[in-house]
Design goal:
Length: 61
């Protein structure tokens, strides 16, 4: 019986570790996605700014 409980303990430990790794993986994926989104929005902001600058230059002429 003792052996059985020890086995169970190991199985649950492995399961917990796996769940923890999965959570970490999901967290990293979210982080990557948000990083990509931030980069995209930065690029968009840059594009908008350059368009505005061009627009202002055209207006000044």
């Amino acid at each position: 019986m003792h052996c059985f409980t020890e086995q169970n303990c190991k199985i649950s430990a492995v399961r917990n570790l796996f769940q923890c790794l999965m959570k970490a993986h999901l967290f990293w994926n979210k982080l990557k996605k948000t990083k990509k989104m931030i980069e995209k929005s930065r690029i968009n902001v840059c594009k908008k700014r350059s368009k505005i600058k061009i627009f202002i230059k055209l207006k000044e002429k």
